[in-house]
Amino acid sequence: MKKLSLAVFNTQPPHLFFGGVERRIIETAKRLLNEVDVRVYCGTKAGFNKTALVNETFFVPCFSTDLLYPLDNWFFNKTISRMSDAIKADVYEAHTVSGYGFLKAAKKRNITKPFIQTIHGVLADEYIQASKRVFPTLRTKLSHFFMWHLSKIEKESAKNANLIVTVSKYSSEKIVELYNVDKTKIRIVPNGVDLQKFKPFEGCEKVKHRIKVNNKQCVLFVGRLVPRKGLHFLIEAAKHVVKERKDTMFVLVGDGPLKNHLISYSIEQGVSDNFVFLGDVHDDLLPTLYNCADVFVLPSIQEGQGIALLEAQATAKPVVAFNVSGINEVVLDQKTGLLVKPYSYELANAILHLLSKRSLREKMGHCGRKFVSENFSWDICAQRMFQVYCEASQHAQSKLTF
After folding, report:
1. What CATH superfamily classification does 205-375 receive?
2. Burial grade of 138 (CB within 10 A; 0-12, 13-18, 19 or more)
3. Burial readout 275-299 (b: 16 or more C-beta within 10 A, e: otherwise)
4. pTM score over 0.85
5. 230-248 residue pLDDT tens
6. Which CATH architecture fits 4-192+378-394?
7. Pair type for strands 4-10 and 337-340
8. CB neighbour list of residue 152: distance below 8 Å, 6 or more residues apart
9. Cα–chain center distance at 233
10. What phi-psi label fits residue 96: left (phi over 0), alpha (psi between -120 and 50 degrees) or beta?
11. Residue boundaries of the structural domains of the chain
């Protein structure tokens, strides 16, 4: 039986970046090797300029510049629009706004192969939520402007795509509400987690010493340092936490445009000695860092789903997060973690509650591992995506046409 050919578009090279979108692309392709011939077209970032074969999947560089988002995204879309005749596949899939250039060119050239738009967190929703809680910096204001602009592009792509895939019921509802898209063309396929990689284990003492945790209690965050992650809430919460538990360490894994501002803010709040900013780390180190933590926290004000929440629970760590957007679909409040209202004092109280009760942390961690194992894995995600690819391909010559 002939394999289905799939072209995937993403501005960031997934084998060199380790965000949630990139992880989904890598893990799905890896699990569909026998059914789908995948080629990933991605931007020339982080020194990526030659076609690479990773886990039997080809990654093809398309000029994008190595500038900050969204300039790299704009150049990338210009490039793939010019390459539209040369990129052949049975099905095309774009993540976020990484494929609108190809989609426009395909319409002009009457390319009738189906196009799938995969939306993780709905950009229009992200813009609305971020605007409610303006973080007063010039960079943030500029970020909000670009978010508004990109949400318009995402809306247009969603309307023109043959099928839309998103990661949660919440995101599906927001796509219908904010993009005025027919819900019948939306498919919900949650992200997953590698359960063999992210699991509880002992022997993290050397890493704890390296990240300055040692025998202190550790609160861990993993993600991009961007406005929607709500990290100013965490810094404010830390001020309350250290008053009662002065040796608590807050370890932040990830990089982003707000890093210097967050460091300055931690100094302003008098908690800089309790914060460790690790920046980006290699993907292989992440499971160990999760295992170093006593509590995982994600103070996001908007999440389509949140892969880090899945990874933390798979590692049997209790989580604290705001009860917003799609988070309550992947965290069971009072069972695998604590979901609170989006205020710093609520966050602080939840963190203190878990830090003070080891037995509760262990109980929630056990429940979290079981919950994720039964409902979220990359195997489940890959098979559901394969069904979507087959559906799109089978209907390419009927109602699912450009």
Report:
1. Glycogen Phosphorylase B; (3.40.50.2000)
2. exposed
3. bbbbeebeeeebbbbbbbbbbbbbb
4. yes
5. 999 999 999 999 999 999 9
6. 3-Layer(aba) Sandwich (3.40)
7. unpaired
8. none
9. 20
10. left
11. 4-192+378-394, 205-375
